[in-house]
Task: inverse folding
């Protein structure tokens, strides 16, 4: 799965993902690969999650020893928590909404400001079944990821499926984008 187009210091792309959603076992395997890669680089990861509700952190912390490479996670489901915990600006939320590239970029910046993580990933989307609009349909998920002091990426993805499938695909995409960022072989 590919991940980027450059826009200044940020990178954007748009993808529609239609494949069957991953199993918990497949997500864990990706997270294990990411952990091995982070350890080999001497790096730690932090995550900020909205529509996935901490599921990415759960997959990671199910792995024994993940504290060696996982700094922690912020579940920022409401706009208020995005602001108070991650420093997302009210003006960003007013102008672009919670599900936007601008918001996930600020969520990632907030992780770098509030954690010792070297690598960060943020997720915000509309998992459904409600909440979608013509402009932002159910299945739209924005991801942001990057390295501290380096380029940060933000991309929208459109996932088919029910609420659980959208959330699982979001986690899978986040893990794949992190593996790509760190140039880790995917097994």
Result:
């Amino acid at each position: 799965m590919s991940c980027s187009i450059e826009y200044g210091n940020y990178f954007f792309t748009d993808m529609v993902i239609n494949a069957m959603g991953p199993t918990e076992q497949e997500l864990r395997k990706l997270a294990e690969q990411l952990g091995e890669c982070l350890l080999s680089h001497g790096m730690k990861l932090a995550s900020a999650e909205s529509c996935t509700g901490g599921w990415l952190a759960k997959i990671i912390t199910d792995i024994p020893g993940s504290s060696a490479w996982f700094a922690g996670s912020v579940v920022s489901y409401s706009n208020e928590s995005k602001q108070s915990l991650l420093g997302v600006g009210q003006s960003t939320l007013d102008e672009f909404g919670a599900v936007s590239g601008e918001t996930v970029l600020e969520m990632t910046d907030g992780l770098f400001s509030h954690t010792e993580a070297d690598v960060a990933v943020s997720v915000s989307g509309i998992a459904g079944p409600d909440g979608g609009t013509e402009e932002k349909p159910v299945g739209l998920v924005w991801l942001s990821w990057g390295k501290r002091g380096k380029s940060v990426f933000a991309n929208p993805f459109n996932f088919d499926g029910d609420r659980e499938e959208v959330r699982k695909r979001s986690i899978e995409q986040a893990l794949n984008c992190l593996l790509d960022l760190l140039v880790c072989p995917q097994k």
Observations:
- Strands lie at 6-7, 10-11, 15-17, 45-49, 70-75, 119-125, 140-147, 152-159.
- The longest helix spans residues 163-181.
